[in-house]
């Protein structure tokens, strides 16, 4: 994908990105799991950033209750496939971005193929079974996992990439098993604008990882509390007993693929 200098002028003037950074974005391949509350803003900003190839994985259709936060969709999209409508919206935003829609579940069986050619994966799903499967697949593919989660007025984002940083955790180091009180947003509720904050932060982390700009949240988690406006970052330790990553750990991290 050739860089559109006029379209991406505001990136190119940034010393941390410049032309070389924009070229990296244009060559990048990113898989996004979920085109919902978190995936929608993340997808928009990744396409706007000029990411060369975006694969959208979501088996669901648009419902009326999605429209409070899933900003890729419109009322006329109700009952349409999310991945396909998201593809159409991103293509309308930048026809130069290659967008692939996959209307299927992300599982242990499908994820190896969905991540095989990806530089990184964003996970914005809302169930722990899928989160654990994405984590395992990212570990196997040795690509960074950008993970976001929201509930009520609070959100979090982290990057899990133990292959890039010694003693960095994987997702299951942080959440070893499904919490007994786990609820999705249909039960607990979520303020719509919160998903925009966290989804945009996920896109930011992806851009940093692809371009090697700044310090990605590898081994750290950013926590945002919407009611107070407080933001804090905490360090996440690796677990030597983690069922997902402990057995595959080495002492030597490798450099990023992108």
Summary of the model, kept short:
By secondary structure, this protein is an alpha/beta fold. It is 32% helix and 17% strand.
Layout of helices and strands, plus pairs?
Elements: H1 9-12, H2 18-27, E1 29-33, H3 39-48, E2 53-57, H4 82-93, E3 98-102, H5 111-115, E4 120-123, H6 128-141, E5 145-151, E6 154-160, H7 171-174, H8 185-188, H9 192-211, E7 220-225, E8 230-235
Parallel strand pairs: 1-2, 1-4, 2-3, 4-5
Antiparallel strand pairs: 5-6, 6-7, 7-8
Key features of this structure:
alpha/beta; 17% strand; disordered C terminus
Report on the structure:
- By secondary structure, this protein is α/β, with parallel strands linked by helices.
- It contains 9 helices and 8 strands.
- The chain has an 8-stranded mixed sheet with strand order 3-2-1-4-5-6-7-8, sandwiched between helices.
- Mean pLDDT is 92; it is low at 251-258.
């Amino acid at each position: 994908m050739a860089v559109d200098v006029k379209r991406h002028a505001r990136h190119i003037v940034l010393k941390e990105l410049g032309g070389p950074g924009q070229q990296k974005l244009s060559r990048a391949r990113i898989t996004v799991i979920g085109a919902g509350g978190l995936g929608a803003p993340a997808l928009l900003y990744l396409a706007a950033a000029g990411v060369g190839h975006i694969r959208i994985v979501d088996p669901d259709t648009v419902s009326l209750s999605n429209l409070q936060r899933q900003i890729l969709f419109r009322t006329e999209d109700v009952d349409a496939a999310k991945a396909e409508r998201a593809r159409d919206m991103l293509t309308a935003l930048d026809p130069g971005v290659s967008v692939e829609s996959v209307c299927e579940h992300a599982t242990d069986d499908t994820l190896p193929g969905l991540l095989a050619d990806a530089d990184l994966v964003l996970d914005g799903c809302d169930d722990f079974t899928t989160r654990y499967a994405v984590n395992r697949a990212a570990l196997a593919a040795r690509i960074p996992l950008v993970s976001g989660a929201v509930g009520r007025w609070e959100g979090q984002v982290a990057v899990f990439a133990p292959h890039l940083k010694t003693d960095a955790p994987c997702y299951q180091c942080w959440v070893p098993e499904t919490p007994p009180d786990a609820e999705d947003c249909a039960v607990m509720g979520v303020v719509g604008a919160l998903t925009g904050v966290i989804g945009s932060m996920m896109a930011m982390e992806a851009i940093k990882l692809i371009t090697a700009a700044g310090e990605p949240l590898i081994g750290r988690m950013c926590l945002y509390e919407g009611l107070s406006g407080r933001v804090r970052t905490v360090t996440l330790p690796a677990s030597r007993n983690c069922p997902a990553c402990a057995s595959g750990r080495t002492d030597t991290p490798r450099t990023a693929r992108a």
